[in-house]
Specification:
heterodimer, A: 164 residues, alpha+beta, Ubiquitin-like (UB roll), DNA polymerase, domain 1, 2 domains, 5-stranded mixed β-sheet, B: 846 residues, Aldehyde Oxidoreductase, domain 3, Aldehyde Oxidoreductase, domain 4, 3 domains, 8-stranded mixed β-sheet, globular
Chain lengths: 164, 846
């Protein structure tokens, strides 16, 4: 149902946005079509494919299962916020090295999920990586290169940590 | 070429800076369309009342099927069909989910709101849902005076009757390959802008080709092809064949834009996609095979019923005929009989899906080979060995006219057997069946060619578990305590993978006398453009419409090779425009045609540009053009790399000082090249056809275990050996193999499009249509051989579909082997396996 429009204030990738939206506007549509952050993709709109995953105050969420108004006052990270202008995030770099994407449509969501999971479990086993990826559908890669990329990144980070 | 350079596509995609069509706004202010869809599998449409919807807030207009039909012709079909196909239902709805009306509004939310206000009066009709009923004599399909069978053809090659008569063993069995769908993660998207000033339509769509369908769309819209400008976006989120069917929505949106006088756009949602995009055909095959006592496959008889759904949509019945030159698989078979019936049912129409007829064909053939091996008391690998074409038999003409280019099938089989440790696994299996311990556990590791990964990692077991004193992988399985009476199975599949399809093969659906009436169709050609700008930069334009395969990366490699540049000095554009790019009707992204013909077009254009540069350089270098070498961005005399002139200088000269060019050099540094695959003549009067230009070979061996308590299927190891000719980019090749395998693993184990007895779709979401996830797809070990194709310019063959063809067969063979059964239904879900085990008395309680 339509209702009165509501103001939504969010911080997305460090930038403040203030928008007036219908309460029923999905967070995924808000990010893509209001804010122009089209790196977040929509693959099913029922929470299975994971393509729309973003971080809401650091937690991976399906932006197709939330309304924009639910994000009011929250901090959101999307794939556009992972890399800086000069260089990719090391996880993105690992995806490139391992040929972990083909069409790239599912990739943004997988990256955001992986960032969240790796914060909680920095050095997952391959089975744990497969488990974390099981909330995402990729129809191109057969998943193995993605597992390789996440594993290599996790272990690389561990090495870096040791060196420091 | 041949190097696994990083993909040029990746950085933008990883940054979220891809340009998929729904990200783009080519026509500001385009209204959003939502479709009203039939809830019935079959119903007469008595009336469509759009008044309330048209008056709803934000609505720009509503278009019904009847309105669309007033400005459109039916979509053209490959063969005559009584049932006209319009992209909006006209008069009756023929499958659940069929679009009936389109609502255009200021935003999608309002369009969907208004869609609920469209009142359609339906009179439900009896749906026809079973392909075998549809194939029965006189089966009626309402609205089709000639019935539900739209094509019924028989073919005889050699003398199959005599061969069956002479056979020592004749096997006959029925196989059913279920409906499934490639289901790319990005759904369809179309933007359409009708221009009344010159009565032209510009459409943007994540369409994948083939561009034969551009002609179909233009004809349906009543436009000359020059008035339908079709543009594809730079990025497309997977297709796997399915997005060929976007053409229906190009016509629908084009008609809506024209009728309402406004630009419109539509992005398909997942429920629309699963109900109404494009399914793979369900196929029922009665296969009869005759063998000699020694295991020689003498003759095959296919009796096939192919369900194409509610309408015969172009390019169907291509799913059925794509493999026609390959019906004898990898084997030497002289005698072949075929009956092909194409039937309509009240289900979603079918179309391109990865594998495109291959999975449906190989399941009968490769299951039959496994069944025959058991009857003949031969190991399946030995039976294969006795029938595989030998390396000295190429090029090989198949019974139905196919022309296999090259290969060494026995070597591939040997590679696969060695990699999997075949003999030892068979011994382990025998030991498990007898309930005793395995002999010579250590030999498992020794027998494995690569000594690499363990049996599928023995999923669920951490690390490598060896048996006592050795690194045995099956020992690892023993380590989990299931050594006795384990249900281990081994499945083999040998498949020939055709690529670069002959555009004429589908005309086999009509008899020769009818084919003679029309324009013959043949071949497969492609175009590419390469241009050098005044500063020496290189831009390549492709017409291969990639959907993730990395065409830009490979094109940069092959062009760089010709021009003596690094791949990163070559920019490749993947977005495509029918009005500014060179293309052919066979352009596009299907039948694994990029490496065979698409990359070859780019290479050829670059070669001609290089020739031009060599001619210009020759004057500077005072040598013959043929003595000029292009390397490291310079042109120099062969054998004298130190001197020479830079390409940048030559480019500058050509652009800024054309008067100085040698007289025989064409002005301009832009070349468009067309290449055409050889041997692809139209079918001849004997119904023989070379259906594809190149033929790769794949051997898969699957090792599975079925849990006797839960019926859970585990893939312990899976080896695939490919020979796809010259590999242009080995890592991208592996990526195609992995993805293709996942698309075969899906329908083998879980993916199936299911309708209830009313014809209502039960798999309308990703919660019901079960695509495999990372937790299900098993590790795959990939080996390659490279026997170049003599028929493709770069020696490369397609390899994007082979494992989709082979995996269902290999896995079905493995499961049947594990359970000692002759029949298993796909997908092999736990309930299905459970039932097979229950019947066989294999289930164990705790």
């Amino acid at each position: 149902m339509r209702g009165d429009s509501v103001e939504v204030n969010v911080v997305v990738n460090g930038r403040v946005y203030s928008e007036v939206v219908e309460p029923r506007l999905l967070l995924s549509d808000f990010l893509r079509h209001r804010l122009g952050l089209t790196g977040t993709h929509v693959g099913c709109e029922h929470g299975v494919c994971g393509a729309c995953t973003v971080l809401l105050d650091g937690e991976a969420v399906r932006s197709c299962l939330l309304f924009a108004v639910q994000a009011d006052g929250w901090r959101i990270e999307t794939v556009e916020g992972l890399a800086d202008l000069e260089k990719l995030h090391p996880l993105q770099e690992s995806f490139r090295e391992h040929f972990a994407l083909q069409c790239g449509f599912c990739t943004a969501g997988i990256l955001m999920s992986a960032v969240d999971c790796l914060q909680k479990n920095p050095i997952p086993s391959r089975d744990e990586i497969a488990e974390l990826l099981s909330g995402h559908l990729c129809r191109c890669t057969g998943y193995l290169p993605i597992i390789d990329a996440v594993e290599a990144y996790a272990h690389g980070e561990q090495e870096t940590g040791r060196r420091q | 070429m041949g190097q696994s350079v990083p993909r040029v596509e990746d950085e933008a995609l990883l940054r979220g800076r891809g340009r998929f069509l729904d990200d783009l706004n080519p026509v500001p202010g385009a209204a959003q369309v939502a479709f009203v869809r039939s809830p019935f599998a079959h119903a007469r449409i008595d009336s469509v009342d759009v008044k309330a919807a048209a008056e709803a807030p934000g609505v720009m207009g509503v278009v019904t099927g009847a309105q669309l039909a007033a400005v459109c012709a039916p979509m053209g079909a490959v063969i005559p069909c009584d049932v006209p196909y319009y992209p909006l239902a006209v008069g009756s709805a023929r499958y659940a989910g069929e679009p009936v009306a389109a609502v255009a509004a200021r935003d999608r939310y309002r369009a969907e709101d208004a869609g609920e206000l469209v009142v359609v009066d339906y009179s439900p009709l009896e749906p026809l849902l079973d392909p075998l009923v549809a194939a029965g004599v006189g089966a009626a399909y309402i609205g089709a005076p000639s019935g539900a069978v739209v094509s019924d053809r028989t073919f005889n090659y050699g003398d199959p009757d005599a061969a069956f008569e002479a056979a020592d063993l004749v096997l006959q069995r029925r196989f059913r390959f279920p409906r499934w769908s490639g289901a790319p993660v990005e759904c369809a998207c179309v933007v359409a802008d009708w221009n009344p000033a010159d009565r032209s339509l510009t459409a943007w769509a994540n369409f994948q080709g083939p561009f034969t369908l551009h002609t179909v769309a233009a004809a349906a819209l009543g436009l000359p092809a020059s008035k339908l400008r079709l543009i594809t976006p730079p990025d497309s989120g997977g297709s796997f064949g399915v997005k060929a069917s976007v053409v229906s929505y190009i016509v629908a949106l084009g008609a809506v834009s024209r009728i309402l006088g406004i630009p419109v756009r539509w992005t398909e949602d997942r429920s629309e996609h699963l109900a109404s995009s494009s399914m793979a055909t369900e196929r029922i095959t009665d296969l009869t095979a005759g063998f000699s006592a020694e295991g020689r496959l003498l003759a095959l008889r296919y009796d096939t019923v192919e369900d194409v759904g509610a309408y015969l949509r172009a390019p169907e019945p291509a799913s059925l005929y794509r493999m026609h030159g390959t019906l004898t698989g990898a084997y030497r078979v002289e005698h072949l009989a075929v009956r092909n019936r194409v039937v309509l049912t009240n289900r979603c129409p079918t179309g391109l899906n990865r594998g495109f007829g291959g999975p449906q064909m190989y399941l009968p053939l490769e299951r039959t080979m496994a069944l025959a091996a058991a009857r003949l008391e031969l190991d399946p690998a030995e039976l294969a060995r006795r029938n595989l074409l030998r390396a000295d038999e190429f090029p090989h003409r198949t019974a139905s006219g196919g022309l296999y280019d090259s290969g060494d099938y026995h070597a591939c089989l040997d590679d696969a057997l060695a990699a999997i440790g075949y003999e030892q696994i068979r011994r382990e299996q025998a030991a498990a069946r007898s309930g005793g311990p395995a002999e010579n556990c250590r030999a498992v590791a020794d027998g494995r060619a690569d000594g690499g990964s363990v049996l599928g990692g023995v999923r669920g077991v951490d690390g490598v578990v060896g048996c006592e004193g050795g690194g045995s992988t099956l020992g690892g399985v023993q380590g989990v305590g299931r050594s006795n009476g384990r249900l281990l199975g081994i499945g083999l599949a040998c498949v020939v993978e055709p690529s670069v399809s002959n555009m004429g093969y589908v005309s086999l659906a009509e008899p020769p006398e009818r084919r003679r009436v029309g324009l013959p169709k043949s071949g497969n050609s492609e175009a590419a453009g390469v241009a050098m700008n005044p500063l020496g930069g290189v831009t390549v334009r492709l017409s291969t419409v990639p959907q993730g395969q990395g065409h830009r990366t490979v094109a940069a490699q092959v062009v760089a090779d010709e021009l003596g540049l690094r791949p990163d000095q070559v920019d490749v554009l993947s977005g495509f425009d029918t009005h500014s790019d060179a293309w052919t009707v066979s352009s596009g992204n299907y039948s694994s045609r990029f490496s065979g013909i698409g990359a070859a077009a780019a290479s050829e254009a670059a070669r001609r540009l290089a020739d031009r540069l060599r001619s210009i350089a020759a004057e500077h270098l005072e040598c013959a053009p043929s003595d000029v070498v292009l390397r490291d961005g310079r042109a120099s005399v062969a054998g004298h790399p130190a001197g020479g002139v830079s390409l940048r200088r030559l480019a500058g000269q050509a652009h800024w000082n054309p008067e100085s060019l040698p007289a025989d050099v064409e002005v301009g540094l832009a070349v468009t090249a067309f290449v055409s695959a050889p041997n692809l003549q139209p079918p001849n009067d004997n119904d023989e056809v070379v259906a594809a230009a190149a033929h790769g070979f794949v051997v898969d061996i699957a090792v599975v275990e079925v849990d006797p308590h839960t019926a859970e299927l585990s893939v312990l190891d899976y080896v695939t050996v490919h020979d796809a000719g010259t590999l242009l980019h080995p890592r991208l090749a592996d990526g195609q193999v992995l993805g293709s395998f996942a698309h075969g693993f899906g329908p083998a184990t879980g993916e199936r499009v299911v309708y209830d007895k009313e014809g209502t779709l039960l798999t309308g979401s990703f919660m019901d249509y079960l695509c495999p996830t990372a937790a299900e797809v098993p590790p795959l070990r990939i080996l390659h051989r490279e026997t170049p194709s003599p028929f493709t310019p770069l020696g490369a063959k397609g390899l994007g579909e082979g494992n989709t063809m082979s995996a269902p067969s290999a896995l079905a063979n493995a499961v049947c082997d594990a359970l000692g059964i002759d029949d298993i239904e796909l997908p092999m879900s736990a309930p299905g396996i459970w039932e097979a085990m229950r019947v066989k008395g294999l289930l164990r309680s705790e």
